[in-house]
Amino acid sequence: MIKQSELLPDATLYEYVEDDRAGCTLGPNSFNVREQTAGKRVVIFGLPGAFTPTCSAKHVPGYIEKAGALAAAGIDEVWCVSVNDAFVMGAWGRELRTAGKVRMMGDGSAAFTQALGLEQDLSARGMGLRSQRYAMVVDDGVVKTLHVEAPGKFEVSDAASILATLGPA
Q1: Contact of 110 with 76, CB cutoff 8 Å
Q2: Which of 58, 89, 153, 167 suits a disulfide with 106, CB 3.0-4.6 Å?
Q3: Other C-beta atoms within 10 Å of 165: how many?
Q4: What does DSSP assign to residue 123?
């Protein structure tokens, strides 16, 4: 499992882009994790799946609610990462109204999740390989804090817990 003070893996995540942005096409776009975190302070939180109960009712909404406070604490971006494709993450983001607050990043093949060492096998529940529930603060591509939930828990990866750990930018 990735640890504090380690560099994020060289991996690609996918985001469904619905607006005109420099260098992006409408639809799924690939983003290199290291390039996207270079020179930035980013909160990355991972969860088992789009449209699942705790993820939809608590995890993502908490980050939407605290987006302003996170920005005020020096966070440049907030990413939600799930082992889903960019189309699903885009639809979920539209439903939850994440635009401008949380980037919904798809890790469809679980390559990023596995490179972090934060995968879990939920095949017995019909979900296959998924992400553990976690949150991390990344500064210029380096993990500064990492909070991984115990199985079935939602106590340390929420927005309020991450906000409480943030020091000055």
Answers
A1: no
A2: 89
A3: 13
A4: G
Structure letter (DSSP) for residue 151: T
The two tokens of residue 84 are 């889903």
Q: Is 80 among the catalytic positions? A: no
Amino acid at 160: A
Contacts of 5 (CB under 8 A, 6+ apart): 142, 143, 144
Out of 8, 47, 55, 159, the active site residue is 55
Q: Sheet containing 41-47: which strands, arranged edge to edge?
A: 27-32, 12-17, 103-106, 77-82, 41-47, 134-139, 142-148
* 83 found inside a domain: yes
The total domain count for the chain is: 1
Residue 5 lies in a domain: no
> Looking up tokens 């210029």, which residue turns up?
140
Q: How far apart are the first and last CA of the chain?
A: 26
Q: State the CB neighbour count (10 A cutoff) for residue 153.
A: 11
- Assessment of whether the complete model's pTM goes beyond 0.70: yes
The residue segments making up the domain with residue 79 are 12-165
Q: Note the pLDDT tens digit of each residue in 89-122.
A: 999 999 999 999 999 999 999 999 999 999 998 8
d(CA 114, CA 129) in angstroms, rounded, equals: 9
Q: Which CATH number is 69's domain given?
A: 3.40.30.10
